[in-house]
Specification:
The complex is a heterodimer of chains A (813) and B (145).
Chain A lengths: L1 H27 L4 H21 L2 H19 L6 H22 L3 H5 L5 H15 L6 H8 L16 H27 L4 H24 L1 E3 L1 H4 L2 H12 L3 E6 L4 E3 H22 L3 H6 L6 E10 L2 E8 L6 H10 L5 H6 L2 H6 L22 H10 L3 E7 L3 E9 L4 E9 L2 E6 L3 E6 L6 E5 L2 E6 L2 E7 H4 L10 H5 L1 E6 L5 E6 L1 E9 L5 H4 L4 E6 L5 E5 L1 H7 L13 H4 L2 H7 L1 E8 L4 E5 L3 E8 L3 E4 L2 E6 L2 E6 L10 E8 L3 E16 L4 E2 L6 E7 L2 E6 L1 H7 L2 E2 L6 E5 L4 H13 L2 E5 L13 E7 L17 E5 L17 E3 L4 H15 L1
Parallel strand pairs in A: 2-4, 9-18, 13-15, 20-29, 24-26, 31-32, 31-33
Antiparallel strand pairs in A: 1-3, 4-5, 5-7, 6-7, 8-9, 8-16, 10-14, 11-12, 12-13, 14-15, 17-18, 19-20, 19-26, 21-25, 22-23, 23-24, 25-26, 26-30, 27-28, 28-29, 33-34, 34-35
Helix pairs in contact in A: 1-2, 1-4, 1-11, 2-3, 3-4, 3-6, 4-6, 8-9, 11-12, 12-17
Chain B lengths: L2 E8 L2 E6 L5 E5 L12 E7 L2 E6 L1 H6 L9 E8 L2 E7 L1 E8 L18 E7 L2 E6 L1 H13 L1
Parallel strand pairs in B: 2-10, 5-7
Antiparallel strand pairs in B: 1-2, 1-8, 3-6, 4-5, 6-7, 9-10
Classes of the chains: A alpha+beta (813), B mainly beta (145).
Chain lengths: 813, 145
């Protein structure tokens, strides 16, 4: 019974998280039948389960909500704001009770404070509104549309996280044993058959490891699910009006990472709402729509995930930020004059500085962005910020896809191994190859590197293995690693020797060691050697290597030259095409890299298509006559409106393009050629691909077209054309066309009944169709039938119809 | 009440530790030091594919390093998902105690305060009952301070 109850509480909570977004969407449009149905299904399921568990209190709540929602579904009551609020209150209470149930307070779930007030509010909300009831005629027909059916979900089971962890631990143990065994076997003369078995063991183990790796991954929508509700509640509290746009890009992230970025992300959202989005009247004064927009999107490129938090609020006033920093003594007035706009913006990450005019309960207490940055950098991520005053702010988080495996450089100092995340390593300078120019200045050292003077730290000194001023052996015979910090600053780190590049499986360190701010984790190499992963951000902080306003450092002259080079660079993905050629594509057009099978590809008259997940994408990339067998790598590309899949052989790397692209003579899939690592590489034309290959993403708010579905020809031949143009088709209620919630209907298409009267042939098959355009409110609204916008089109004049559909789409969008 | 305890030597004393707190007792052949940490953290050591943090209990209690002679033996405990190995000077036996630990008027001295739960009567005579988690907590306090 206890297990069943646990399943119930977990299921309820999961369902609640899943519909949190629906609830907010429903509030925005109470007449939305799909949302209503989703919430109805939730309370209905909860009610059913409660009966089974004898939980009368939750059952009564669910029952009351179900009743009201059922009446709304039948059209007996109109859903309005009061009703939405009442239903939300009941749902909140249900969640509270379920939480209490799980924490063992069984009594609280059956007794406790009275729910009758909530239920009464629910009933009152329904009846008060019933006076002004609007029939839900449009909603009724929508409910019948197949699109309303929830997407089928794949079979899955629920597992406790501990079990997963222990399986992962077991596999790691197996790998260690395999490696030990390999060492022993290397010392003896082994029969060939044993060698074959051992190789098979290795292959199986590698597969198992990969599978385990994937078990750690979780879709990002787990993280995004509760956010619409958070934004709704916060907006209410702040008296603001903001919509949250979510785009998870179907990205998967290590589930530990999801936990780690939850707080930073919530913090960024709060900031966006509190400081970014203006009050509705301020927005109106500035000529913006009164509803603000906060958008959260995620993309995967190679082994990195990019999460962008964007708002269209007031932006960050860098002048005020700077004067605050000067007032707080963080920056000297002299230094302030020399700061670039980017440096000023970066002040937001300084501890003890907030751009907020006043401290609110929600954010602006001066602790915030510095903590967010520290947290993000702690697990190997980076954070950058861009803002335009008056227009909005854009914050980009870049994270490793999995916490557990980090590509790293292993180095040796004082007989010990240390790891440096590859993402920080810009270059390795071996002393034997060329003597680097090191100069002693005071107790510090500087390195001349490509015309810049960089501070040079000795890792042994950083770790306290040698005094800073002592000439350690590493400075004479070791290697120097040029480190590039997330802020763009460089410094040099001297080590005894560089051991290897490898992927390290990172294990967490206990808080006692994390407290040193020197390490982020530890790892065991295949030979059992222990490696400590260095916390480069922490070390840079300790030695104050971040440049903001710190113009006395020797880096300043060099920094002035850096921005130009950066401004021109374009992040791009370097890959090998199916024809074996290296090519480049803009990294921001690639939403995801994934594996697929050729069996998922269908060829047809309209080109190749591939099934990815539950969706069909047009496929570009395969050369003519390519042997279509086995697996292929897919770049899933999207520009937010259109998407397509591009087939490639392998991803090489994400790179920064600095050379100009030489445009190609003809317009096509290839924009031109650029120099990369001294060789010419073709650069794909993302715009052309989106325009010619890409297909429209079925974005949620479709425009609606009312058509007479009782007519067979319309239903069979016209509807597909209209739907393909991105419209949702509903039946015309011929008795009362305006009742079908007219404001939502962009177009109405009818057979021209007056055809006979005007003397044309009466054969219905040759009658032209009549298209009536409903403008938005400004053009006359639902009463616009028969207005001059009406237009007659020959029923086979596809061009004219499409032109009209597209024109109308642009108007109403 | 019967409670099994591990009889071990720590910081020059014979002590008893409740076995229910201990995951295993293991020999450690190599400790990798972690530069920059508190002196009571001897370093890290692998335990199969896992990594343990090796704690020098003698350092916490007396402020002096446990002499590094011979093979090192440690009691492994798990706290908040992390594995800790408490270095011991030796392990003698596992036995049962039948009575609750009792406090000693006047205490066991400052260095043992907060670490020793009380005095227990064993077949090896009266011994200090040491809570390994209290030892870790006192390490944590020292680092936070």
């Amino acid at each position: 019974m206890d297990d069943l109850l646990k399943d119930f509480t977990e299921e309820t909570r999961d369902m609640m998280a899943a519909i949190a977004g629906e609830i907010v969407a429903w509030e925005g449009n109470p007449a939305d039948r799909d949302r209503l149905d989703a919430i109805f299904r939730f309370v209905h399921t909860v009610k059913g389960n409660c009966g089974f568990f004898d939980l009368p209190r939750i059952e009564a709540l669910a029952h009351a909500a179900e009743n009201i929602l059922a009446q709304a579904r039948k059209g007996e009551r109109a859903p309005d704001a009061a009703m939405v609020n009442a239903v939300l209150a009941v749902l909140d209470r249900i969640v509270t009770l379920v939480d209490a149930l799980e924490s063992g307070e069984a009594k609280a779930a059956t007794a406790g404070p009275d729910d009758s007030a909530l239920i009464a509010a629910l009933v009152a909300a329904g009846s008060a509104a019933s006076a002004a009831t609007l029939p839900l005629t449009a909603a009724k027909t929508l409910g019948d549309a197949p699109a309303a059916a929830p997407a089928p979900t794949s079979r899955s089971i629920r597992l406790p996280v501990e079990l997963l962890d222990s399986v992962m631990g077991g596999v790691s143990d197996l790998v260690m044993v395999r490696n030990e065994l390999a060492r022993h076997l290397g010392q003896i003369d082994m029969p060939a058959a044993a060698g074959t078995s051992f190789d098979r063991l290795t292959a199986t183990l590698d597969q198992l490891r990969e599978g385990i790796g994937r078990m750690r991954m979780q879709r990002l929508d787990h993280l995004f699910g509760p956010l619409p509700r958070l934004v709704r509640d916060l907006s209410l509290e702040l008296g603001k009006d903001a919509a949250l746009e979510l785009d998870d890009g179907q990205v998967e992230l290590d589930r530990e990472m999801i936990e780690l970025i939850r707080d930073p992300l919530v913090h960024l959202l709060r900031n966006a709402l509190d400081h970014g989005i203006e009050l509705p009247e301020q927005r109106r004064q500035r000529g913006k729509p009164p509803q603000g927009c906060v958008a959260l999107s995620a993309r995967q490129t190679g082994n990195a995930i990019t999460i962008v938090v964007r708002d269209d609020g007031r932006g960050i006033d860098t002048d005020r930020l700077l004067s605050k920093a000067i007032a707080a003594g963080l920056v000297s007035a002299d230094a302030a004059d020399k700061m670039s706009e980017a440096d000023r913006l970066a002040l937001i990450f300084r501890p003890g500085l907030s751009s907020a005019e006043q401290v609110t309960a929600i954010s602006g207490r001066g602790v915030g962005m510095d903590i967010v940055r520290a947290n993000v950098e702690r697990f190997g991520g980076t954070i950058t910020i861009a803002s335009t005053l008056g227009e909005g702010t854009r914050i980009v988080l870049t994270l490793p896809a999995t916490l557990a495996i980090i590509p790293a450089l292993t180095v040796r100092v004082g007989g010990q191994f240390f790891g440096i995340p590859q993402s920080y390593v810009e270059e390795i300078i071996s002393k034997r190859a060329a003597a680097p120019e090191l100069t002693r200045v005071g107790d510090a050292r500087v390195l001349r590197y490509r015309g810049q003077l960089l501070p040079c730290l000795s890792l042994a000194a950083v770790l306290g293995l040698a005094a800073e001023s002592e000439p350690t052996t590493e400075l004479i015979s070791g290697a120097i690693i040029i480190i590039r910090l997330a802020s763009g600053d460089h410094f040099a780190l001297a080590v005894n020797s560089v051991v290897n590049h490898e992927d390290l499986v990172i294990k967490a360190l206990p808080p006692e060691i994390v407290a040193t701010n020197l390490y982020t984790g530890s790892s065991l190499l295949d030979d059992g050697q222990l490696v400590l992963m260095l916390y480069i951000g922490g070390i840079a902080q300790r030695y104050q290597l971040f440049s903001h306003g710190n113009s006395s450092s020797p880096r300043t002259p060099a920094r002035a030259a850096a921005p130009d080079a950066q401004a021109a660079s374009v992040p791009a993905l370097l890959f090998v095409g199916l024809d074996g050629q290296r090519r480049l594509i803009r990294a921001d057009s690639v939403a995801r890299v994934e594996q697929a099978c050729w069996s998922a590809v269908q060829s047809g008259a309209a080109g190749d298509r591939i099934v990815l997940g539950a969706a069909l994408y047009p496929l570009a990339g395969p050369p003519d006559g390519f042997a279509r067998q086995g697996e292929l790598i897919i770049l899933r590309c999207t520009d937010g409106v259109r998407s397509f899949a591009y087939a490639i052989a392998a991803v090489i790397d994400t790179v920064e393009l600095t050379h100009a692209v030489q445009p190609s003579a003809s317009v096509g899939a290839v924009a031109g050629v650029t120099l990369f690592e001294g060789a010419p590489v073709e650069f794909l034309d993302s715009h052309w691909l989106f325009a010619h290959v890409g297909q429209r993403i079925n974005a949620a708010p479709l425009r609606t077209c009312a058509m007479d579905l009782s007519d067979g020809w319309t239903r069979s031949f016209l509807v597909p054309v209209v739907e393909a143009a991105g419209y949702r088709v509903i039946d015309t209620d011929s008795a009362n066309p305006a009742a079908a919630n007219g404001a939502d209907i962009a177009l109405m298409i009818a057979s021209a009944d007056d055809a006979a009267a005007s003397g044309e042939p009466a054969d219905p098959a040759t009658r032209p169709i009549q298209v009536v355009r409903f403008g938005d409110a400004a053009q006359g609204g639902p009463d616009g039938i028969g207005a001059p916008a009406a237009q007659r089109i020959d029923r086979y004049d596809r061009q004219a119809l499409l032109a009209l559909l597209l024109a109308q789409g642009r108007q109403s969008a | 009440m019967k409670q099994p305890v591990l009889i071990a030597r720590l910081a020059g004393h014979s002590i008893a530790m409740p076995t229910e707190a201990i995951e295993s007792v293991t020999a450690i052949d190599r400790i990798v030091p972690v530069p920059g940490t508190a002196p009571a953290i001897a370093g890290l050591a692998p335990l199969r594919s896992q990594i343990m943090t090796v704690i020098d209990g003698a350092m916490i209690i007396t402020g002096e390093r446990q002499p590094a002679v011979g093979e090192k033996i440690a009691a492994v405990v798990r706290r908040n998902g992390h594995l800790y190995a408490l270095l011991l000077a030796g392990v003698d036996d596992v036995t049962d105690i039948y009575a609750e630990p009792v406090p000693l008027s006047g205490g066991f001295g400052d260095s043992w305060a907060g670490i020793a739960t009380g005095l227990v009567e064993t077949e090896f005579g009266p011994l200090l009952l040491v809570d390994p988690f209290a030892l870790l907590a006192s390490l944590h306090e020292k680092i936070a301070a």
